[in-house]
Structures are given as structure tokens and as C-alpha cells.
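RECORD TYPE: inverse folding
INPUT: C-alpha cells
STRUCTURE:
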């Protein structure tokens, strides 16, 4: 397995995959890499759907780039609005309990009543997408370290994917991550120098 720095330097966006399937062990390691990612206030808002075989056909109408469907495995990377509603409701109910407006028991009942009502109105903060991005990049780097290739894909119709997979309303589809054994070896894209990315403050 590659070191962390080796995975960072060797990672490429792979758009051509071999037909060889990815083992369950490797797929599990990718999911574990995402699961262990950090997130703001430990919300862990990421959710994933793994599509393989004929299941990939469900999202065919929503995908613009054919290479995505040719990958042996596709992770549909999503955000769970409940992760944010849960915290908001818990904070408000804790305030009510502390103020002795309701008992802990009553707060528990209110919690279950409030969750479904509020999720539709939740606007996810930008930090939610940063949290998901960290988890996805963990997966991409782990894939590289295992000899796999991957590619972040945003050019697709999220609403169509959501409908095709019959996902609940509190799940938002954000990114597709096709994964497989690379059948290409693209060169590294140009990167800015250290001097260009560092801002000197006097």
C-alpha cells in the first residue's frame, strides 16, 4: 500500500477503467476511509449508495459522461439533512429543558415529532459540502493507495439520480465517484508553484 504522500502525488482523475471488478474488501476500505473523515461538530453528514452491475443502469439517464457507467463501481455521494436538523432540534430542546419549560421525557417526545416537520426547510450550510468533500477525498486517496482509480463527477443530474434511486427527501445527491482499476495513466495536470499559492503578509 502507498504512503499518504505517495497517494497524494499519484492520484489522478481516471476516466477509463478495466472490466475487472473491485473486491468487496477494497470497497469496504473505501467506505471506512470515508467513515473516519472529520466533520464540523462531528455531524458526519455523508451518506453513500454503492452501485455495481445492473444497478448502475438505474442512473444511466442522469449521467452525461459515458465513462461513469463503465466503472465497475459507482459511489453516489450524498448529504443527510437530518444530520443538521438533529443538531438544531437537540440544541433547542436542551435549552427548553435547562429553562425547565419541559421535562427530559417531554423533550424526547417533541424530538421525534419535530424531526420530520423541519427537514424539508433545511438549507444546508456550506460547511456541509466541505465535510462531504473531505470524506470523498479520503475515498479517492484510499483508492489510489489500493491501486484503484477514481474521478470526482459533478456533471450529471442530481434530481434524476435522486428519483431513480428512490432516495428519501432528506438525502441530497451531490457527487458521483466512479471507482475501478485504471486503464490509463494520465500525466499530472499542471500545478501552481509554492510561491504562487503562498501569500506573504508583512
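DESIGNED SEQUENCE:
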Amino acid at each position: 500500500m502507498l504512503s499518504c504522500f505517495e497517494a497524494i502525488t499519484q492520484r489522478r482523475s481516471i476516466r477509463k477503467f478495466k472490466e475487472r471488478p473491485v473486491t468487496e474488501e477494497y470497497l469496504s476500505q473505501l467506505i471506512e476511509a470515508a467513515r473516519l473523515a472529520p466533520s464540523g461538530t462531528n455531524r458526519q453528514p455523508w451518506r453513500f449508495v454503492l452501485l455495481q452491475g445492473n444497478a448502475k443502469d438505474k442512473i444511466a439517464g442522469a449521467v452525461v459522461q459515458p465513462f461513469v457507467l463503465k466503472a465497475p463501481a459507482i459511489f453516489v455521494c450524498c448529504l443527510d439533512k437530518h444530520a443538521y436538523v438533529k443538531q438544531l432540534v437537540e440544541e433547542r430542546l436542551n435549552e427548553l429543558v435547562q429553562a425547565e419549560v419541559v421535562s427530559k421525557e417531554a423533550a424526547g417526545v417533541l424530538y421525534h415529532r419535530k424531526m420530520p416537520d423541519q427537514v424539508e426547510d433545511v438549507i444546508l450550510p456550506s460547511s456541509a459540502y466541505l465535510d462531504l468533500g473531505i470524506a470523498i477525498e479520503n475515498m479517492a486517496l484510499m483508492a489510489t493507495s489500493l491501486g484503484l482509480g477514481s474521478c470526482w463527477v459533478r456533471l450529471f443530474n442530481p434530481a434524476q439520480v435522486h428519483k431513480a434511486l428512490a432516495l428519501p427527501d432528506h438525502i441530497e445527491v451531490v457527487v458521483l465517484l466512479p471507482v475501478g482499476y485504471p486503464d490509463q495513466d494520465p500525466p499530472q495536470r499542471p500545478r501552481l508553484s509554492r510561491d504562487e499559492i503562498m501569500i506573504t503578509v508583512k
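NOTES: The beta strands are 46-52, 73-80, 149-150, 171-180.
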